[in-house]
Write a structure and sequence with these properties.
The structure is a single chain. This protein has 169 residues and is an alpha/beta fold. The protein has a domain of 101 residues: Rossmann fold (3-Layer(aba) Sandwich). Helix content is 37%, strand content 22%. It contains four helices and five strands, in the order αβαββαββα. Helix 2 links the parallel strand 1 and strand 2.
């Protein structure tokens, strides 16, 4: 019976001291092809000075980066009819019609610029464990694809350079 409790104590101790997965500085990484986004991501990793070595041979990588990106092209201008402005002289809306108009104009401007969203997952090549994941969306600048890649690289760099403290429960 004492052996059982000793084994249980040893197991619980090892679980308690287990650390969150980390990516070591200088590790090799392979970026899965994703319709050209991998080029933006590799460039962003170099630009942001992420301490990883990008390799072209998947079999030589310690980590694999899988990504997904979606780009919504600018939409055609649309005519918006606001039915609250049609002969509502008897209704006091407290100015909410002006707010709705402002929201519609903001949505139209955002749609006219388009939007890009991207996400990456860094996967340990040996254990298949996802050790880092990040997602970002951009709609305000001209080169949204490059901007999303740089945001992913920036947060990956922070993850590698500043390991998270282990949470205690």
């Amino acid at each position: 019976m004492n052996r059982f409790f000793a084994s249980l104590l040893l197991l619980l101790t090892s679980v308690a001291f287990a650390q969150a997965p980390q990516i070591k500085s200088g590790s090799t990484v392979y970026i899965e092809p994703m319709d050209g986004y991998e080029t933006y991501l590799a460039a962003a990793i170099a630009k942001k000075k992420v301490s990883l070595i990008v390799v072209a041979d998947k079999s030589k990588a310690e980590y694999i980066i899988a990504s997904s990106v979606s780009h919504q092209t600018p939409s055609q201008p649309a005519v918006v009819v606001n039915s609250t402005n049609i002969n509502n002289s008897n209704v006091n809306d407290g100015g909410s019609g002006a707010y709705a108009d402002a929201v519609q104009r903001a949505e139209a401007r955002r749609a006219a610029r388009g939007a890009t969203s991207a996400s990456i997952s860094v996967i340990d090549a040996h254990s298949s464990q996802i050790v880092f994941a990040y997602s970002v969306g951009k709609s305000a600048n001209t080169n949204q694809i490059q901007s999303t890649a740089e945001a992913c690289a920036k947060h990956l760099k922070e993850f590698i350079d500043k390991p998270q403290k282990r949470e205690t429960r």
